[in-house]
Amino acid sequence: MNSLKIALAQINLLVGDVEGNAERVVVTAREARDRHGADLVLFPELTLTGYPPEDLLLRGTLLQRAQAALDHIAREVSGIDLVVGLPLRESGRLHNSAVYLREGKVLARYHKQVLPNYSVFDEKRYFHPGKAPCVVDVKGLPVALALCEDVWVSEPARRSRSAGARLLLSLNASPFHLSKHEERLKVLRDRIYESGLPVVYLNAVGGQDELVFDGHSLALDRGGALQLNAPSWQEGIYTLEVHFDRRDISLSGGLMTPIPAPEAQLYQALVMGVRDYVNKNGFKGALLGLSGGIDSALTLCVAVDALGPERVEAVMMPYHYTADMSRTDAAAQARTLGVAYREIPIAPMVEAFMAGLADVLAGLPADTTEENIQARCRGTLLMAISNKTGRMLLTTGNKSEMAVGYATLYGDMAGGFAPLKDVSKCWVYRLARYRNTLGPGIPERVIERPPSAELAPDQCDQDSLPPYEILDCILERFVEQDQSFTDIVSAGFEPATVERVMALVLRSEYKRRQAPPGVRVTRRAFGKDRRYPITSGYGRLLGRQHPVALSSNLQVVEKNEKD
């Protein structure tokens, strides 16, 4: 039988760094040729611009730079075939394309046929779809090219088979969310069963703003069996042997990495997201407020694992309501992880603010206003330290809290990046316990104690919110699955609780618009995924439709220093 060795370049690219990305291609292609003996090397979708370039695509200079970078690669690489992704303009229309290079010449150009325009994707804003398959002869084997969404529907693979292809090569920038690997496997097996073509699936790796790409490149034979299962969250060159004759084709020799547990996948997603956001944006390190609670404790572990302890600083900012155990546990965790740690009491600042507001607040009962002053003093301190040190301020709020507005604008929401923004409170606990299996990280008492904002005497989160086990289930149904009030109540949840949670989510949109970006790890995150209007009568409409009317006077909860 004849053989073909394919290298999958699972690499971390930087959006907009066209020249830097091109140099990565040159170096990687040479390594695939010289060290791995590959005949062909594949690179991720939109290799040269990175994915997603968003409105950078509207700047003509980006396209010119991409073409110049492609010419540079063609001059610099020989002795191995390459498939590289880039935006190409043809007949006045911009396409998401892949180019097949051999010995300095472009053998073929392929334009993505299926443009996703849902969830975090808006490719129809920029690109026109291609109309035809692209089949290239590689050492006597006809192979077809595909780009990401092309394999999520039936027609492109069928067209490729009809055009004579015997192997499908798919270049991807497929973002991670929980259970994404299982979804990909099902989709690829569906395409194989429909077309009869084995599939080599290369995915990008790395973080880009809210998105994280897990790599986890794959190859499946004609029977749908895995023949390559590359590691997630790791850059690398992964090779595969393709054996073929006139009648048969088989795959072999691919690395088979065990599938990590969901907790491991999610935790590594957060680490990758923080590492790339901080490093790609040129920050010296990370900074956070360490309250002695579980959210900030988990965020600190993520930051340390992403950047190293020498680049992380934690600040405890106690007030009258801060429990002694919170101060003790925060200091203990900082020592365990080896990070810089300081304590700055905020009582003098809070008292100064209260004195300045004395005439305004005179005769009015205490409420969340006084609590939020504490939170905003902390936010101001942390931002000052961030400015002075060049370290990115990480916020510590989780998805459950952001969903219902249980956070303080310009207080605990102040910062540049939110690692836990798409992580529910119940998952925070799961990840905390997982992190402690990797080594000392979070004091057990922090995990066990009831969560509290510590902005008032004897305060507890459950005084203001339903139990997190219930809240998170309702939020998953309403936010991630778009279920209606009736659907959620029919699943067994108390109508008044569902009503209240839905109202809080809808009323808190204005806060989320002012929140920093965070790592997307679920099917529906706040940000690119879910774009609701701030000003809307939708809540009143729900009230008319359902037997339990939404209250007109529900207040969005504000607080800070969660847990």
TrEMBL record:
Which sites bind deamido-NAD(+)? 372, 401, 511
Q: Does the keyword DNA-binding apply?
A: no
Can you tell me which residues form the catalytic site?
45 (proton acceptor), 45 (proton acceptor), 112 (for glutaminase activity), 148 (nucleophile)
Q: What is this protein called?
A: Glutamine-dependent NAD(+) synthetase
Q: What is its EC number?
A: 6.3.5.1
What keywords appear on the UniProt entry?
ATP-binding, Ligase, NAD, Nucleotide-binding
GO BP, one annotated term:
NAD+ biosynthetic process
Asked if the record carries the keyword Nucleotide-binding, the reply is: yes
SUPFAM superfamilies (alphabetical): Adenine nucleotide alpha hydrolases-like, Carbon-nitrogen hydrolase
Every CN hydrolase domain range: 4-244
